[in-house]
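Q: Structure tokens for this one, please.
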Amino acid sequence: MDTDLAHRARTVLDAERYVVIGTVDPDGVPRVSPVYFTHLGYRDLYWVSRPDTHHSTNLATWPWVSGVVYDSGSPVGQGRAVYVTGRAFEVPEDELAQACVAAFAAPGKGARAFTPAELSGSDSLRLYRLRVACHEVHVSAGDPTYGTGADRRVGVDL
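A: Here is the predicted structure, written as tokens:
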């Protein structure tokens, strides 16, 4: 089972453009934000954002996040999604050159590569990385192979 579900998870992560990340405000209120992402080996998800955005300031104080990458065009009952949990942080300036190579090696899906100079200094954009600790794939209630009558998440090893 794990091999097929892991394949499903990789397919979603390769095909979709946005991850919706959930951060936590200083007062404990959850906040969700869609961000355009690329990934490296399914373990590191990268996005570019301004450090003064709501989700970026939340990450500066509490780096644990949950997120979901999903196909919003799926018919009802046939949803395809991957849930991710891990720590997200701004990539330190001394790691930018290497991280830019990793994040933008094959940007595809309409993305463009950024240079370290565009993501440091006085420029307003920064590179963020979500180091995924846990992947779970969505299994719909009526899945012909894995359905149990209720939608559920199944952990996969990518």
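A few notes: The chain has a mean pLDDT of 91. The helical segments are 2-15, 54-61, 96-104.
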